[in-house]
Automatic annotation (TrEMBL):
Species of the source: Setomelanomma holmii
Family: Belongs to the short-chain dehydrogenases/reductases (SDR) family.
InterPro entries from the UniProt entry: NAD(P)-bd_dom_sf (IPR036291), Sc_DH/Rdtase_CS (IPR020904), SDR_fam (IPR002347)
GO MF annotations in UniProt: oxidoreductase activity, acting on NAD(P)H, oxygen as acceptor; oxidoreductase activity, acting on the CH-OH group of donors, NAD or NADP as acceptor
Protein name (Swiss-Prot/TrEMBL): NAD(P)-binding protein
Keywords: NADP, Oxidoreductase
Amino acid sequence: MADKLDNVRPMFELRGRNYLITGGAQGIGFAATRAICEMGGNVAILDIQDRPTEEFETLTSKFGVKTFYYKTDLTQQNSLNSGFERALESLGTIDGCVPAAGIAIDKPFVEQTWEEFTRIQEINASSRSFVRGVFFIVQLVTKQMIKQNTAGSMVLIASQSSHIGLPGYRMAAYNASKGGILMLSKALAVELAKHNIRVNTISPGFVDSDMTRNVRASKSKREGDQMWLAPPLQRLSTQNDLTGAIVYLLSDASRHTTAADIQITGGLHAGTIDGVIDPPA
């Protein structure tokens, strides 16, 4: 006899659940925050900025949820632990997290310095050692979920750069950091499954942001067009392209999904528009 089919819409609800977002003051992190709040979830943000984007202040009244912001230096263990404890005190319980901080540098591999590499690892992995910060914020959340004896979901932010290197884009340190995040998610998904804790990733392509525009401005016209037009859908991703997948992976709609990676690249991970990326000589 076939299983009784559940209604789909309620599966995506996050009402009454509590989430921790790192790097949520702006960009992808804030987009994830807003989406979670829209679906009824409460959110605590940890970020280095003094205050988040102005829209953050409207989320409580707009969606009837609780929101908290704690200035936290994600590269310092004491600050990270303190920020987590303050977030936990405010939320009471935690049902998942989205570590979302990240930067990139476009520079030839042989010219990248120790300091530049370290800074990328500090932010993308939120600490001075490779993926250490993401490792430990997820560890803190995991310990709390086990203590609560509740299920949960983590959504880590990987990248197309976890999978491919594009001609003309010299981001070896960034690729290394995001590749580490992708593999960390898979290892944790296997280990934490016995606790009913799921760990997945999304891999955005080039996202239309100040950082991406600054990289494009440093390129030749051909290289700039390559970034903008190479995906088969012939545009960059926006933050709005990512939030549906984040909500799905946090929600019960993905209750049997773990160790998965959703590539949101406009098709760039599968191929490029003819003539936009020059073939190797």
